[in-house]
Amino acid sequence: MCGIAGQLGGEAPAAEPMIRALAHRGPDGVRVEALAGASLAHARLSIIDLEGGWQPLHAAGGTVVGNGEIYNYLELARDFQLGDRLATGSDFEPLLHLHAQEGEAAFDRLRGMYALCLIGPDGRAWLARDPFGIKPLYIMEHAGGLAFASEPRAFFAAGLMRAELDEAAARELLSFNYTVGERTAFQGLRRLAPGEVVEVRDGKIVAGRRRRALLPRPAGEGDPEGVEGALPAHGPDAPSVAFARPPPRAGEERDLIARLDAVLEDSVRVHQRSDVPYGLFLSGGIDSAAIATLMARLNERPVTAFTCGFDVPEAADERAGAERIARALDLDWRETTFGEADFWRILPQVAWALDDPTADYATLPTYKLAEAAKGTLTVVLTGEGGDELFGGYGRYRRALRPAWLGGRPAEPRGADAASLESWRRAAKAPPGLTQLQQAQWADIATWLPNDLLLKLDRCLMAHGLEGRTPFLDPEVAAFAWGLPDRAKVRGGYGKWLLRKWLERACPAASPWAGKQGFTVPVDAWIAPRAGDIAARIGKVGAVRRILGDEAAVRMREGGPGQRWPLLFFAVWALIHLEGAEPGAALSAVAGMEV
After folding, report:
1. Cβ-Cβ contacts under 8 Å for 302 (sequence gap 6 or more)
2. Following DSSP, what letter does each residue of 200-262 receive, concatenated?
3. C-alpha 10: how far from chain center
4. Per-residue pLDDT tens for 243-302?
5. 187 with 577: CB under 8 angstroms?
6. CATH number of 2-210
7. How far apart are CA 558 and CA 553, in angstroms?
8. DSSP letter for each residue of 250-297
9. Which residue of 358, 382, 460, 593 shows the fewest CB atoms closer than 10 Å?
10. What would be the CATH architecture of the domain defined by 253-393+421-509?
11. 304, 308, 313, 318: CA torsion to nearest 10
């Protein structure tokens, strides 16, 4: 885990000021290197090969800077007999050797979370992002070439662009709590899409394609790995590329449970590859309980687990369930609490960390958990992706019901027409999917990368921690996506097969208990100050442009679904658009010091 930045083409060596703005992502050190027609930089959080894994990394005539982890680097080195050619133990070095052998097809062999820039021996460059979008990468084309970085703040620090608000994106943020597609909240800056691979020559994108973690193909169609070749298009409308292997055939329940056990254990095993301490974030839910169960199985010593709870009556507190699981699995369990003082202290810090904004209130306890784990852990495994892959959300079940039984499409409600249309374009599924798969696809294409994974990346990287997501693994995705719908949703339960497995593997997780849901009592803390905030919030330029006088009304009369996103957006705008310090931004909006 780290931060990367660079400039491809042109003469301005922009990488130095860019990477200095990302130093929080790489507390172990920064390296900058000038190449012919490029400037690359890397801020390192040391995870694998602590001594030899520094980047930019050179091998086989190529150079790479990457953020994240390539979990199958040992298998790649073995299968391609790279042993004597490897100069380091870095998980990124095998990629350089594979790329020298087979070109762009090498990216399709990666199993991991990554955002990277690779420059080949002939000077051609590639930018690539993992198929789920676990790790971030932002790009901008300008007169001097193409710049890329792990966070938007790098472009502003280098003077490559000004922080100008994209108003359509801001409306999406206030409608969905995140922005959709590749457009960011800043004019002229876009995300590289999940799974996108682009070729860059002389600072210009000349080709590209998308590589999806889903879309299983029929057996025997195309090449044996289910991966198509490069496609002559790039950008958000580029054709998708299948990545998952053919789906498993529906079999007996016992067989499916055994296969689920094997695929999840394998994923957790490779996600534990680390030369530094690792543990997990444990809620009382099914997904993190599954990860905890397998980590306990695979480790001889008790696994360290952190849980956050709320000492507020109206909050859903998960500590009791988490403690029950921890005792059953003999975890080294540690709890932390989140209260009103934490809310006001952490709010401006989270707003600073999320320069690409998401107004998901789950960012708050995630930040507090990372704060608590810092110094004990460097790598944290989490349960993100379990609901999306195994059909856990109630909106999936509602989408399967007829209208007369309360069924409705699994799409956001209450958004303005333009924002909803933007969401529908981003969420559009390929033909041939079941109704349940269409709903899953929509989440995997929209809020998973642009809310849940963005939240995890920024809140953990702010504390020098690496977050890993074993559910979002290509092998797990291939298995889950190919399951029949009744193995996901049955009898009023989502994640049916995962529950059946957990029933045997860790009954203390109470897998058939009703889903408690995750809430943070933000309105209980905002409401007493709503009148004062309403009088101030309209003075924030971005808020005034988007909502005008409606902002004060929302703050005075709205509920948690309106007050919290508006408060977050106001503080975020002061920090990232007007250059305010985090504490000063909160003071300007809420009239209080922290």
Report:
1. 296, 330, 331, 332
2. EETTEEEEEEE--S-----TTSSSTT------BB-STTSPP---SPPPPPP--HHHHHHHHHH
3. 31
4. 344 444 545 789 999 999 999 999 999 999 999 999 999 998 999 999 999 999 999 999
5. no
6. 3.60.20.10
7. 7
8. P--HHHHHHHHHHHHHHHHHHHT--SS-EEEE--SSHHHHHHHHHHHH
9. 593
10. 3-Layer(aba) Sandwich (3.40)
11. -50
- What is the per-residue burial (b if ≥16 Cβ within 10 Å, else e) of 22-32? bebbbeeebbb
Enter the tokens of residue 302.
Answer: 């008790």
Distance CA 1, CA 525 (A): 34
Hey, where are the domains in the chain? 2-210, 253-393+421-509, 522-590
Tens digit of pLDDT for each residue in 6-61? 999 977 567 999 999 999 999 999 999 999 889 999 999 999 988 999 999 999 99
CA–CA distance, 87 with 98 (Å, rounded to integer): 14
For every residue of 42-93, DSSP letters joined together read EEE---SSTTT--SSEEETTEEEEEEEEETTHHHHHHHTT-GGG--S--SSH
- If you search the block for the tokens 């994209």, which residue do you land on? 166
Quick check: do 2-210 and 253-393+421-509 share a fold?
no
- Report the distance separating Cα 349 and Cα 334, nearest Å: 23
The burial class, CB within 10 Å (0-12 / 13-18 / 19+), for 334 is middle
Instruction: Give dist(CA 20, CA 157) in Å, integer.
Output: 8
Query: Is the C-alpha dihedral spanning 500, 506, 509, 513 positive or negative?
Result: positive
Residue written as tokens 């995870």? 47
For β-strands 38-44 and 57-59, DSSP reports them as: unpaired
Q: In what order do the strands lie in the sheet with 278-281?
A: 332-338, 304-310, 278-281, 379-381, 466-468
**Residue 78 neighbours by CB distance under 10 Å:** 12
Tell me the pLDDT tens digit for each residue of 292-341. Answer: 999 999 999 999 999 999 877 766 778 899 999 999 999 999 999 999 99
Interaxial angle between packed helices 319-329 and 286-298, expressed in degrees from 0 to 180 and rounded to the nearest 10: 20
What residue has token string 């991966």? 227
Q: pTM for this structure?
A: 0.93
- Continuous segment of H or E residues that includes residue 424: helix 417-427
Helix (H) or strand (E) holding 129: strand 125-129
Q: Alpha-carbon distance 16 to 6, whole Å? A: 8
HSE, side-chain direction, 13 A CA sphere, residue 349: 19
